[in-house]
Specification:
Shape of chain A: elongated
Radius of gyration of chain A: 26 Å
Distance between the termini of chain A: 39 Å
Radius of gyration of chain B: 18 Å
Oligomer: heterodimer
Largest sheet of chain A: 6 strands, antiparallel
Largest interface: A-B, 54 and 61 residues
Helix content of chain B: 25-40%
């Protein structure tokens, strides 16, 4: 799950991670009021979308740039008017762009140094790791490539937590001393608390800046949350903005289906994540192109199968459907019933290829064979993929 | 021999009174597995099915019945605690089926298990099966959720993260006439108890296992680690498959661990490493069985 910049800022404020003053606005009036409330002459307005490259983006109404320096509170209203309700296209949004519902007005701080700071869950050591670098403001992958010695990693004991000496080591590595080291210590300790308490999978501050007057501030942040832990964080779930997500994925999540839309034309419906991935792979291997990843899980119901069909068919690119079920927990006859009901309900008029294996497979195949629907049956995964590719291309 | 469990293994089920746990405990009983006890806090004294006693705690259940292995089917918020309870009761093996345990919980579990005698398999896994000698492999040890009847007792070890992809491999082997020693699903989460490498080492030491199928997917470097070890140390033929060649980068493909990280973390990169380590890589998931048989 992703969150907006202003939501990240809210989390920073809640946990005491120093960042520039800022406020969110949903209308031009609010934007003006926010600019006046923050005060000062050095302000910036930023369109709130889940995508990078905002500054160089273009709105579909022709307005240039999703990030602007402001000269007055009136200008905040003027720019907000041009951004809110409009669609911003950046290099990360694709040409369809993203609708801007909110803008953030924030203090534009002067920058003396740009640093990099992140906390993530490390798979190999099963511990949180703090990653820091003096080379902030650029892509950390680039730094890792060209000057790996400028990246330091501090692994944290999962039960003992962040220690004082670890903080001092990191401050030293970032070339922070005196009061700046003290500010950094408070910032990283609070950030670590935030990381743990919100079940983050990642929090990245890039850049962490030092201002000419010696403040250490988190300028921009990126969050990742552990989806498995969202059940204990209703406040973070409330940050979810479904306008930012693929509508098919939003619909699928309502039915507990694991769906990811892709660009191909053969839709797949599979039980189990590994088999679902493998099904996509074999479609490609046979010369086709998968339209989606869809795992209906181990115990899918008729309703879920039906919902899955509707989501699949909502994609205009889809020219055929491949159903691949290895019924372990799931019984093939129940799946067959679900498929037939869904095909009828949706008045399916594209090729449907079904491969069933596992528990009650004979009953399942019988049901499909005796229905009046035109279903192409397959005996193996390879057979299914070949038939699907032939049906779609033929 | 097989690895980890055999037909004499006594198993208890944590969460046996829940719908999911109860269903699979019964299927295991039907398969001939010695499910000797259930554990559900507050429901001690009840009986599951015909005669399986239910206890309040794991230590009571193990003490009364001699169970040495636990299968965990409790919901995600309570699963970490259930694992630790089984570790505290000093069981040999804990198989956690539960899907959706927060990563932070598993991180703590992993740390607290340091130095304990218990091995953890999973979480978010299909469990393991050592097939029996009866009809449709009846009489074996089935822990978890795999369909028992697709197995056949034999000499191929199977290790995989994914449930249904394991079934696919097992089914192909059985169809080709090759039975299995033990099939282990290690689970799809980023932090798990037992790795591909751990299982490969056990297969390598097991007399009954003569060949191995290792199934992996995108995310992490566990498969590469196992392959590099095998190149130097494993004297048995291995066939491999890596799922996720078509997965878009940065997206979580169902399994919490299945996410393409960087350039080195793609299905292609992993396949290349496997091949360099002498593992016969199956191009499609349909050919896993055939690829292995081709090496024998």
């Amino acid at each position: 799950m992703n969150i907006h910049e202003y939501q990240a800022k809210e989390l920073f404020e809640k946990y005491g991670v120093a960042s520039p003053n800022g406020q969110v606005a949903g209308t031009a009036e609010e934007a003006k009021a926010a600019a006046q409330a923050i005060g000062g002459s050095n302000l910036v307005i930023k369109a709130q979308v889940h995508a990078g490259g905002r500054g160089k983006g273009t709105f579909k109404n022709g307005f240039q740039g999703g990030v602007h320096i402001l000269e007055s509170a009136d200008q905040a209203a003027e720019y907000a008017e041009k951004m809110i309700g409009q669609t911003l296209v950046t290099k990360q949004t694709g040409e369809e762009g993203k609708l801007v519902n909110k803008v953030m007005i924030a203090e534009a701080v002067d920058i003396e140094r740009e640093l990099y700071l992140a906390i993530l869950m490390d798979r190999d050591t099963c511990r949180p790791v703090i990653v820091a670098s003096t080379e902030g403001g650029m892509d950390i992958e680039e730094v890792a490539e060209s000057t790996p010695e400028k990246i330091v990693r501090q692994f944290i004991h999962p039960l003992a937590g962040l220690q004082g000496y670890e903080v001092r080591k990191l401050a030293k590595a970032l070339e922070l001393s005196g009061d700046q080291a003290k500010q950094f210590g408070k910032l990283i300790s609070n950030l670590y608390q935030l990381f743990l308490k919100c079940d983050c999978s990642m929090v990245e501050i890039n850049p962490l800046v030092v201002t000419p007057d010696g403040q250490v501030l988190a300028l921009d942040a990126k969050f990742g949350f552990d989806d498995n832990a969202l059940y204990r964080h209703p406040d973070i779930v409330a940050y979810r903005d479904t306008d930012e997500e693929d509508p098919r994925e939003v619909e699928a999540s309502k039915y507990d289906l694991n769906y990811i839309g892709l660009d191909g034309n053969i839709a797949c419906l599979v039980n189990g994540a590994g088999l679902a991935m493998a099904t996509m792979d074999i479609i490609q291997h046979c010369g086709g192109s998968p339209a989606n990843f869809l795992d209906v899980g181990g115990g899918a119901t008729k309703e879920q199968v039906s919902a899955a069909f509707k989501i699949i068919l909502g994609d205009p690119n889809v020219k055929g459907i491949l159903v691949n079920i290895f019924g372990g927990i799931m019984q093939c006859d129940i799946i067959a019933e679900g498929i037939l009901a869904a095909a009828k309900e949706t008045e399916l008029n594209i090729p449907l290829i079904v491969r069933l294996e596992g528990t009650n497979v004979e009953k399942g195949r019988e049901l499909i064979a005796s229905s009046d629907l035109d279903v192409i049956t397959a005996v193996s995964l390879n057979d299914a993929a070949e038939k699907a590719v032939a049906a779609v291309n033929g | 021999m097989s690895i980890l469990v055999d037909e004499n293994t006594k198993v208890l089920v944590q969460g046996i009174t829940g719908g999911f746990g109860g269903k699979h405990a019964q299927l295991s009983l039907d398969y001939g597995t010695q499910i000797v006890a259930g554990v559900t806090p507050g429901k001690g004294g009840q009986t599951f099915g015909e005669k399986t006693p239910v206890f309040d705690t794991v230590s009571e259940a193990a003490g009364e019945t001699g169970a040495t292995v636990s299968a965990i089917f409790v919901p995600p918020p309570f699963a970490a605690d259930a694992i630790l309870e089984a570790v505290d009761a000093e069981l040999d093996l804990v198989v956690c089926i539960t899907e959706g345990i927060p990563v932070a919980d598993m991180m703590r579990v992993k740390e607290m298990m340091q130095g304990s005698k218990t091995r953890l398999i999973g979480p978010n896994c299909p469990g393991l099966v050592t097939p029996g000698h009866g009809k449709d492999s009846h009489g074996g040890c089935r822990i978890g959720i795999a369909p028992g009847y697709i197995h056949k007792r034999g000499n191929v070890g199977v290790v995989s993260r994914s449930g249904t992809l394991t079934y696919e491999a097992v089914y192909q082997l059985t169809e080709l006439g090759y039975g299995q020693s033990t099939c282990v699903g290690i689970g799809g989460d980023p932090i798990n108890g037992t790795s591909h490498l751990d299982v490969l080492k056990m297969f390598n030491d097991d007399d009954e296992t003569e060949a191995i199928i290792m199934i992996g997917e995108i995310g992490g470097n566990a498969e590469a680690e196992a392959a590099r070890w095998a190149k130097e140390n494993c004297n048995k033929p291995i066939a491999g498959f890596i799922a996720g060649a078509t997965a878009p980068p940065g997206r979580r493909m169902g399994h919490a661990g299945a996410i393409v990280g960087g350039a080195d973390d793609t299905a292609e990169a992993k396949k290349k490493i496997l091949a360099e380590c002498g593992i016969a890589v199956s191009e499609t998931p349909s050919d896993m069985g055939k690829t292995l048989v081709g090496m024998l």
